[in-house]
Amino acid sequence: MTLPIVHHPGYDAKFAVNHRFPMGKYSALMTALGRRGLACPGALVQSSPAPASWLRLAHDETYVDQVMRSAVPEAIEKEIGFAVGERVSRRARLAVAGTVLASDIALQTGIACNAAGGSHHARRARGAGFCTFNDVGVAASLLLASGRAGQILVVDLDVHQGDGTAEIFADEPRVFTFSLHAEKNYPARKVPSRYDFALPDAIRDAAYLECLDDALKRMAEAFRPDIVFYNAGVDPHEEDRLGRLSLSNDGIRARDRAVIGHFRGRGVPVVGVVGGGYAHDVDELAERHAILFETAAAFA
Ligand SMILES: [Zn+2]
Question: Measured by CB atoms within 10 angstroms of the end CB, which terminus of the chain is less buried, N or C?
Fold first, then answer.
């Protein structure tokens, strides 16, 4: 089967090339996927902006309203790291809907990826850390509300701790949040996930993969999910600007294979989302993000 990939050209809100957030990576990723034959017409599914009713399942009404009207208070925009104008607001809604759509498809086919998403720092009442809405938070809430999933696991391997997702599901026992991250990295104040695994700086492939394997085994004993959301951020990469860890491309590939193989081997549907990744060269960055899609395609 071809890997279903959810995408929309509006995922790229067209920031200036020298912006701290490498927005161009979303367009570059589609080019990288095209080169690999993964972004063919039969594989691509287009998202459309998420309605407020979905967003309110994971976010406070006031904040949803502020983003929809492009009237986010300056203090919150500062936390996010960019202004929430019309294009950014639409992009946030498109990315959420992309993860929702990917979760619908994964429940039917076993695996699907969104070519955006993984905005795990967004909390109920505000965005933060380049994240406006928490796409996984909304998609998981929607699955619970509709009864399509009863137990949901979030495997967050972005190098930064998944504080927003942890906060959204702090009182929701049906969602198990797992974060494997660099201890000394952003956010300074972490919100406890159900399972946090904090790593020391500069950890390399072998030690990282050992920690991951250990964590996957522990979770398999503790929780049997109906679906897994996998945040495959590539900021643990050795050349990432914000990472602090030292994974190679092969390490990232082995990581993705370990996660996807583990859950597909158990028959659990997997939804892959892009997550963080920071480099000045967006083409190089897109190549790193493409690893998730290549790996997922082998399990489709
Ligand atoms: Zn990150």
Answer: N
CATH of the domain at 236: 3.40.800.20
Strand order across the 227-231 sheet: 44-46, 5-7, 111-114, 270-273, 227-231, 152-156, 175-182, 195-199
Å from CA of 121 to ligand 1 middle: 9
Record the tokens describing residue 95, joined without a space: 């990315």
Provide the residue range defining the domain that includes 254.
Answer: 5-297
Longest pairwise C-alpha distance within the chain: 47
CA dihedral 213, 218, 224, 230 (to 10 degrees): -40
Number of domains in the chain: 1
Residue 279: is it exposed, middle or buried by C-beta count within 10 angstroms (0-12/13-18/19+)? Answer: buried
Residue 276 CA, ligand 1 centroid: distance in Å: 4
Ligand 1 (ion): which residues have CB within 5 A?
158, 160, 233, 235, 276
Note whether 24 and 282 are within 8 A (CB).
Answer: yes
Distance 47 CA to ligand 1 centre (A): 23
> Which of 150-174 are b and which e, b meaning 16 or more Cβ less than 10 Å from the residue's Cβ?
eebbbbbbbbbbbbbbbbbbeeeee
Number of H helices, E strands in the chain: 10, 8
